[in-house]
Design a protein that fits this description.
Belongs to the ROK (NagC/XylR) family. The protein is an alpha/beta fold. Helices cover about 35% and strands about 20% of the residues. It folds into two domains: about 5-110, ATPase, nucleotide binding domain (Nucleotidyltransferase, domain 5), CATH 3.30.420; about 125-290, Nucleotidyltransferase, domain 5, CATH 3.30.420.40. The model has no long low-confidence stretch (mean pLDDT about 95).
Length: about 300
C-alpha cells in the first residue's frame, strides 16, 4: 500500500485551506484560515505559513513528499508567482519559493484555481475516464481548465482554459479585464444578480440579492430571474461550444456556486449548447455538474503535486 502523502493549499480571496491528501484522493487532515485579503503581502503570507505550520505539526507530515498549490489568479507557474485579483497585496508575489522555504525544500507545484478544479474532476469527479475535457468554475468569476489527451493541460503559465475571458458578445459590456462581452461578464454570479435586478426582479423580505436567491426565484417562475439565467446559460454554451470546436472536448463539467442552481442553469445550458455545438464532431458533447464540491481546490492541488512528483 502506497503511504506517501502530499500537502495541498487552496488559496482564494476568502479562505486559505490546507490539507494532507493520500494517493487515493482522500483528505487525511485539513485546516483553514480566513484570507487577510486587504492586508499587505507579508500578512497574507503569514496566514499561508500558519496553515502550513498546522499541517507540518501533524505526525502525518513525515510521509509528505510534495506540496501542491491551487491559487486564485492570475498565476504564473513558470515564474512561481501569483497576482490574485482579489488579494491586492500580492502582485507577482513569489509564492512557490516562499512555500518551498516554509516546508524545508519539498517540491512545490503551482496551478490556477481553474486548473486545480479540473485536475480534481479528472482524478475523482465527473471528468474521470474522459481524455478531453473542459471544467468550469462559475461563481464570483468564471474560470476553467483543460484536460487534453488524458492529461491536465495548464499551459506555460498555468492559466490555459480560462473560458471566462472568451468574448461571446462583440458589442457587449466592457469587462474589468479590458475586453468586451466576456463570458464572465454575463455568466458569473454577481452578473446574473445584476442583470435580474436591472430587469425588474426584486429580492424577498430577507434582502438576499445573490445569484442563489435569483435561482430560487427562477425556480418559482419569476420571469426576470429566468431571463437572467437564460442569458448566462447562453453565454456559457457559446464559450463551451467554441472550446469544443477548437480542441474537440468530450465533456464540459460545470462547478462553482452558480452550478448549485441545478436545472435552472443546466436546462437552458444544454438547450443552448445544441444551438451552438452543431458540427458533427462536437454534437455528442456532454455537460455534467461537478462532483468534487468544496474540496475541489484541495483535491486538485494535491493532484497537481502528484503529477509533479510523477514527472
Amino acid at each position: 500500500m502506497h503511504t506517501d502523502l502530499v500537502a495541498a493549499l487552496d488559496i482564494g480571496g476568502t479562505k486559505i485551506a490546507g490539507a494532507l491528501v493520500d494517493g487515493g484522493g482522500r483528505i487525511r487532515l485539513r485546516t483553514r484560515r480566513p484570507t487577510p485579503a486587504r492586508e499587505d503581502a507579508e500578512t497574507v503570507m503569514g496566514a499561508v505559513e500558519s496553515v502550513l505550520g498546522e499541517l507540518s505539526g501533524s505526525p502525518l507530515w513525515a510521509r509528505t513528499r510534495a506540496v501542491g498549490i491551487g491559487s486564485a489568479g492570475p498565476v504564473d507557474a513558470s515564474a512561481g508567482t501569483v497576482s490574485p485579483v482579489n488579494v491586492p497585496g500580492w502582485r507577482d508575489f513569489p509564492l512557490v519559493s516562499r512555500v518551498r522555504r516554509a516546508v524545508g525544500g519539498l517540491p512545490v507545484e503551482l496551478v490556477g484555481d481553474g486548473a486545480a478544479m479540473t485536475a480534481a474532476e479528472h482524478w475523482q469527479g465527473a471528468a474521470r475516464g474522459y481524455a478531453n475535457a473542459l471544467c468550469l468554475v462559475v461563481s464570483t468569476g468564471v474560470g476553467g481548465g483543460l484536460v487534453i489527451g488524458g492529461k491536465l493541460y495548464p499551459g506555460p503559465t498555468g492559466n490555459a482554459g480560462h473560458i471566462g475571458h472568451i468574448s461571446v458578445d462583440l458589442d457587449g459590456d466592457l469587462c474589468p479585464c479590458g475586453a468586451r462581452g466576456c463570458v464572465e461578464r454575463i455568466a458569473s454570479g454577481p452578473n446574473i444578480a445584476r442583470r435580474a435586478l436591472a430587469g425588474g426582479w426584486r429580492p424577498g423580505p430577507d434582502g438576499d440579492s445573490s445569484a442563489a436567491a435569483v435561482a430560487v426565484a427562477a425556480r418559482a417562475g419569476d420571469p426576470f430571474a429566468v431571463a437572467s439565467f437564460e442569458r448566462a446559460a447562453q453565454a456559457l454554451a457559446a464559450g463551451i461550444a467554441a472550446t469544443a470546436t477548437l480542441i474537440e472536448i468530450e465533456i464540459a463539467v460545470v462547478g462553482g456556486g452558480v452550478a448549485g442552481a441545478g436545472d435552472v442553469l443546466f436546462g437552458p445550458l444544454r438547450r443552448h449548447l445544441r444551438e451552438y455545438a452543431t458540427l458533427s464532431f462536437v454534437r455528442r458533447l456532454t455537460v455534467a455538474p461537478a462532483l468534487t464540491g468544496t474540496d475541489a481546490g484541495l483535491v486538485g492541488a494535491a493532484a497537481a503535486a502528484l503529477l509533479g512528483t510523477a514527472r
